[in-house]
Amino acid sequence: MSIVDNKNLNPELVRDVDKDLRPTEKRIMDPVSYTASFMGGCVSIGTFSMGAALIGTLTVFQAILAMTIGCLVIAVALVIIGNCGHKYGVGFSVQMRSSFGTTGVKIPGILRGLPAIVWFGFQSWVGAGAINSCFKILFGFDNLPVVFALFTILQVLLAINGFEGIKWLENISCVFIIGILIYMLYVVNTRFSTELGDVFSGITGTWGMPFWAATTSFLGIYSTMIINASDYSRNVQENVGPFKTGAIYTIAILPVTLFMGLIGLLVTAATGNSDPVVVFSTLMGSKFLTVITLLFIAFAQVTTNVLNNIVPPSYILMESFKMKWSHATILVGVLSVCVMPWKLVTDESAAGLSLFTQFYSAFLGPIFAVMAVDYYILRRQSLDINDLYDKEGPFKGINWAAIIAIVVGSICSLFIMDLSWYVSLIPTGVVYYILMKVLASSKSFRKGTIFE
After folding, report:
1. Which residues constitute the domain of residue 174?
2. pTM of the predicted protein model
3. Does residue 448 form part of some domain?
């Protein structure tokens, strides 16, 4: 796949467009940096909860296999969506204009942005809890709301620096993250070996619906990341092709997900508590090791939130409401507090978070299907960059073929929530293909497609 030279882009079309929404001019991510970015960005406390939700349903081997399948699907899906951004240097909100329209992009944008904001709030509260526990151990200071507010502000400030700052942050974090995860898994397995043996001795597991639902749960954590893959891939150097990119995603996502999912599963099975901050702040047996582990949990939230939960909704706000990058990131921070994340970290939240993930996956799977069919089948990976940025061009307004298709796909997937992401793909893709061919209101969107 050759990288498109965007020098032919009409400068008048991007004169009033924020520089972060224009085609990428400088590719700052080499393979090592890109791997580090995804490795750091995938350390989601939500993965602990997804692992905890499997207790009593799957054996440890089945849980590992379910996570592996989910991660491999994620890697392939990231390549499929991210190829457009890598080739043309455009982000998610611009890429969607060819399928949803310049106005229609607000709908998938909101569907993508809301889960990110919820996860940002959730993970910020968990990270703040870890920092607060450190302060309590070291200095006797205990004020979680204040720490949460300061921690949220810190992450927003880091995000305002853009991908240059993100690259630096993620490169430093990846080795530290993997090392601590291995250590945490070792501690859990050795300290609670008797309890774990008792819990899992009576679990026979299943290869039926609960197993495949588990793959959806882990896939669902990243389903938000999948559809805005171009926001990341547009920064990757030109010589990194699809196969190498797929390998990068697998190497980065799989080990982190396996470690965190297993830790969540084993910790909850042994202690009955799905909150890793509480468990590791009370059971490590060493003040030094406790502080190091808690700082890791806090640091991990920063690397994940900045890359996955601040950047995408900020781009969406910029696209939809003509906001500046700094203003958009600040608003994302404010909205993350409004979701009241302290309500999401209770012991009863693990199953609820799993259901939440499956529910929003029912909407993100159809968006993925529309984007894939539009780019690969209808446009044969060929776009006119000027059309993408021309607000009065062929992609003006709303493409109702895409909107109707994601509604149909979402309805289909809601009938089988446990497999929501998978179930939605074929119905959405078929409906979008047919409507693009026959729907009168989609005539202008047929420019550059096989139906032109």
Report:
1. 27-351
2. 0.85
3. no
